[in-house]
Structures are given as C-alpha cells and as structure tokens.
Write a structure and sequence with these properties.
By secondary structure, the chain is an alpha+beta fold. The protein has a two-stranded antiparallel ribbon with strand order 1-2. It is elongated and about 50 Å long.
Amino acid sequence: MYRNILFLICFLFLFGKADAQKVFTSEDVDSLKQHIQQAMVDWKIPGLAIGIVQDGKVVMAEGFGVCKLGEDQKVDANTMFGIASNTKAFTASALGLLVNEGKLSWDDRVVDYLPYFELYDPYV
C-alpha cells in the first residue's frame, strides 16, 4: 500500500507541473503510457488505472496490467480499487481547495454544511 502511495506522490511530482495553457497531445499520452509501464516494472505494481480530464473532456481513461497477480483479469478504465484510508488525504485536499477559493473556512462547523451531521460535541 505504501508503495502505491509513493508511486502516486512521485507521479504527481513528475507530471504535476502542468502549464495551465498546455494542450494534452497524443504524444503526451504515449509518453505517459511509457512512463506508467516502466514505473509498474520498477515498483512491481500489478495493475493501475488512470483518468485524465482536460477542459471538461476525458483525454485518457485506461487501465494497465492485471487486477491480481497470477490472474488474467485485466485492469480497465472502470476497474474499482480499494484505497482504504487514502480517502482522508483526498478529502483534506479537496477541503483545502475550497478554503483557498474562499468557499469555506477551516473554522466552519460541519453542521453548517451538513445539518443532519451529529456528534457528541454540538460545536461540530
């Protein structure tokens, strides 16, 4: 699991320096596929799926490798993966973006956005 997280972090650093005006070309897709396949070999990743959206359009949605070592079922763009506790990081990142856009504050109460949410401490 930590190897997959490390891969994701490295992947984001390698390809996360996107120019806001850059158009994602077929050459970019081919280069990305080569990097993915090499990373899978280097880090012994049996399978992964990737989706890239640019300007509201799906530029790439593809699976690589297999779902489970020793089996023939291939990963495709619709393969579901268990991501366990990684959702906490995704949620915190999404909230951080909303805070940065001024749509909410870290000090806001959860019940201000989800009135049905209830914990022992009413301040939440």
